[in-house]
């Protein structure tokens, strides 16, 4: 077995000469001199210890050893060409792919319903979505972008705020109809769903009434479940306006009372500044932001 393989230039010179039957034509095909082709062939024959070509008039003919090498080399070069093309294609796909981490409630209530519009706006984008409540770990994963709630800034990362969100009170249309004409003060006597982060006392202050937290009832720590409970008619619920938009537009929820208060944490798109997909990430982030502002 040969310990030191011939250079690619030597192998290309041999392959071109075998294909054309002429060092002159091989030199023209490879844009090198006749002398360079001749030196490469001599070096290869010396390394292999056999003659690869015989001269037949002005034409070169392969010996048996030369024919065997030419056939093997042709298959090998085709395999290399296919491998390189495959690698380039995979790299091109990677440049058009994004791995996105998003909180489950934001994914279910807002992002997923807008994926058809996203695909129209960014054709060719391959999107991989992972729903998680954990903080994103950009260093130990192939994660490109994260949509997270939190206070700004996210130190060490690029971030773009979607919008200034509000906390609103919602309920099902049937619940609103049963309590037609309800006022903010009436909320104290109505079924109110509880969330671990949102306080009815804050909403009451925004509405100009005093509201204590409900002493009984179910406490939700997932906003998506809270929205579903409200849509099923279980009572009034406090939720982010952004997360309620889809259900309100579909008629599954209504906002019976106008009072609201600013969310303490807003939604941000977060990514690493050294990610090589900066252009694609920024186009994705800008589209998400514009979609959030549009509603």
TrEMBL record:
* Biological process, per Gene Ontology: DNA-templated transcription
Q: Which SUPFAM superfamilies match?
A: Periplasmic binding protein-like II (SSF53850), Winged helix' DNA-binding domain (SSF46785)
**Where would I find the HTH lysR-type domain in this sequence?**
6-63
List GO molecular-function terms, semicolon-separated: DNA-binding transcription factor activity; sequence-specific DNA binding
- Superkingdom, taxonomy of origin: Bacteria
Q: Which UniProt keywords apply?
A: DNA-binding, Transcription, Transcription regulation
The text of the family note is: Belongs to the LysR transcriptional regulatory family.
Query: What protein name applies here?
Result: Transcriptional regulator, LysR family
């Amino acid at each position: 077995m040969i310990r030191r393989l011939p250079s690619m230039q030597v192998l290309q010179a041999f392959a071109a000469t075998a294909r054309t039957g002429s060092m002159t034509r091989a030199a023209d095909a490879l844009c090198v001199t006749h002398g360079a082709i001749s030196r490469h062939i001599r070096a290869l024959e010396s390394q292999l210890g056999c003659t690869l070509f015989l001269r037949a008039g002005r034409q070169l003919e392969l010996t048996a050893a030369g024919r065997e090498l030419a056939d093997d080399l042709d298959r090998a070069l085709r395999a290399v060409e296919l491998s390189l093309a495959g690698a380039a294609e995979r790299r091109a796909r990677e440049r058009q792919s994004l791995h996105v981490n998003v909180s489950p409630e934001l994914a279910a209530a807002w992002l997923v319903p807008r994926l058809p519009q996203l695909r129209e706006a960014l054709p060719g984008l391959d999107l991989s979505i992972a729903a998680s409540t954990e903080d994103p770990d950009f260093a130990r994963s192939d994660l490109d972008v994260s949509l997270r709630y939190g206070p700004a800034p996210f130190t060490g990362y690029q971030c773009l705020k979607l919008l200034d969100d509000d906390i609103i009170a919602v309920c099902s249309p049937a619940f609103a109809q049963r309590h037609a004409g309800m006022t903010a003060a009436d909320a104290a006597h109505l079924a109110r769903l509880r969330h671990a982060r949102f306080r009815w006392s804050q909403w009451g202050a925004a509405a100009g009434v005093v509201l204590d937290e409900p002493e009984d009832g179910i406490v939700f720590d997932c906003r998506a479940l809270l929205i579903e409970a409200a849509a099923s008619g279980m009572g009034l619920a406090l939720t982010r306006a952004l997360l309620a938009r889809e259900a309100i537009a579909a008629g599954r929820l209504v906002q019976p009372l106008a009072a609201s208060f600013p969310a303490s944490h807003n939604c941000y798109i977060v990514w690493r500044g050294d990610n090589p997909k900066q252009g694609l990430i920024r186009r994705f982030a800008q589209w998400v932001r514009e979609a959030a502002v549009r509603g």
